[in-house]
Specification:
This protein is 8% helix and 49% strand. The chain is mainly β. InterPro entries: IF5A-like, IF5A-like_N, IF5A_C, NA-bd_OB-fold, Rib_uL2_dom2, Trans_elong_IF5A_hypusine_site, Translation_prot_SH3-like_sf.
Length: 158
Amino acid sequence: MSDGDYVIESSDAGASDTIPMEAGCVKKGGFMMIKGKPCKILSISVSKTGKHGHAKCNFLATDIFTGKKLEDMIPSSHGTTVPIVVRTDWEIIDIDEDDCITLMDEGGNQKTDLNLPLVPPTMAKEIRDAWNEGENQVSCTVQSAVGIQQVVAWKKEG
């Protein structure tokens, strides 16, 4: 193989969007991947050890982006994955007619790749109404996990 045959399409630091964790160590209020979706744990019930010797954890959770409820049952000693969830606050600078928003953080960095949220259905209208009323101090919280970013909360400043 010559040097011209090997091409690197992309590279990254190798950081993962999830981390492995034993199911018995996941706590209520924490996060967990269920059916490929990042979820917040609402409740955990643990059954007694059965004939195969494992206690089972029954997780009830909501998808952090859609709010849909999901359930999963995993032996407490088995591994699962936990998403790395990051929440950041941004000031809204502009909202265009296609519901695309321009955001700026405290450092002056801009973000232009997000739209107004679809879930819950009323949030996009509330943000747009506050913006159209001349409230130039409208900020929002962007939640990101497993490569997905979405506005999850907003407020008027001042």
